[in-house]
Amino acid sequence: MGAAEPLGIVAGGGALPVRVAQAVAASGRPVCVAVLEGHGDPAAYPGLPCASFRWGLAAQLLAWLKRQGVRQVVLAGTVARPSLLSLRPDAAGMKLLARIGRAAFSGDDSILRAVMKVLAEDGFEVVGAQQVLAGLLPPAALLAGPAPDDLARADIQRGLAVCRALGAVDVGQGCVVQQGLVLAVEAIEGTDAMLARCAALAREGPGGVLVKALKPGQSVLADLPTIGPRTVQGAQAAGLRGLAFEANGTILLEREATIARAEAAGLFLLSFDPAEFTEGTTT
Description:
The protein is α/β, with parallel strands linked by helices. It has helices at 16-26, 58-67, 84-87, 91-100, 108-121, 129-132, 150-168, 191-196, 229-237, 255-265; strands at 7-11, 31-36, 50-53, 72-76, 125-127, 141-144, 174-178, 181-185, 209-212, 226-227, 242-246, 251-252, 268-272.
């Protein structure tokens, strides 16, 4: 691969695609950003080749990337599966949808897998955001705050089991558990919205825990669970006492700022090994 070969970013919402674009551009490698309409904001990529496409024009998106000379593509940011009404595909988009098939409407992870398959068939190489930004996936460690006590550890174990059940049917990657009770699960609304409704659901006593984990069998090339400063802010506002996320499989955005915010709020920030919190295993 030549040093001047551009990286293509198919950008959803959130800070991750912006961080990837900025870091790659700062390294001297050209960047082209295809923003998914209704998810990302083209204004977040000033000075970079950028175009916006709705799902129904996905074939035009691929053609645009090819015209830019892109071979490697990163899928980054929050992306929810489209509704039938929002697609309005053109003729080329209809052919592309036929190749994707029912996967486009069976879940968030399934559509991303289908998109990656189409990209590969069209000669693109899909790379993970973590391959572009080193250090995004923390290993197992307590990154901030007090070590979780036995009750919090039990909530993490319960949360991991719930996340795995949700992920098995391609629903979400997170939940909130307090004293063994599941206060909320993440679906299409995303983590921030899930946390926003938790404050009114909290019980008396020790606060709950946000747990984030990979879906069973999930590709690490797209849509990894993500934690950042806003997540910590939302957890604090919801009265939680900690955030626990799967080690080596969760993207930690703005690491220093996220850790600092957790410390200031007195929340624990735990990157955990799933084997340590899987029922029936010994540690």
